[in-house]
Structures are given as structure tokens and as C-alpha cells.
Hints:
Order of helices and strands: HHHH
Number of helices: 4
Structural class: mainly alpha
Largest sheet: none
Low-confidence stretches: none
Radius of gyration: 16 Å
Mean pLDDT: 77
Distance between the termini: 24 Å
Number of domains: 2
Amino acid sequence: MANRSQDWFRQAQRDLEQAECARAAGHHEWCCFISQQAAEKSLPVPADLLVYTEMEWGSIDPSSRFGQVLATATRWVYARDAPTVPPTPPS
């Protein structure tokens, strides 16, 4: 499989340019959405370490590229007093 990391990073940079245009036009919700997309595209996949609360984990969109990668690449780490069964990952 070809390494497309530079392609993703360039697209993330273009997304940030568009986010700035949206911000300047007063479209703040669109600016936030595009910025979040840029952040996902610029992350190394799989990311070395991501820490989520149960609430944050439950809010990840399982149909997003990020959610799909997390569903396949997550390795659970437990605290001593944590339950033995992890929360249900996105599917």
C-alpha cells in the first residue's frame, strides 16, 4: 500500500485555509467542522496514544475515517479500579 500521509497532510492544510475563509465570513459552525476534519487528517494513523473519557469515546462518529480507524486500531488500557470489560467501541 502506498504511503499517502503527505497527501492527507496537504489536504489538512487546505482544509485549514477553508476554515479561515469560513471564520472570516462569520460561518463559525462551518469553521469548527472543517478545522476538526483537518485535525483528523493530520493525525498519524494509527495515533500513538489517544486518551478518551467514556463520554468522549461515545461521541466519536463511527462512520468517520477517524472513528473507523479507532475501531480497528484501539488497544484498551485499564486503570486498577476499572471494570474488566471496556466500553463498547464505535462500530
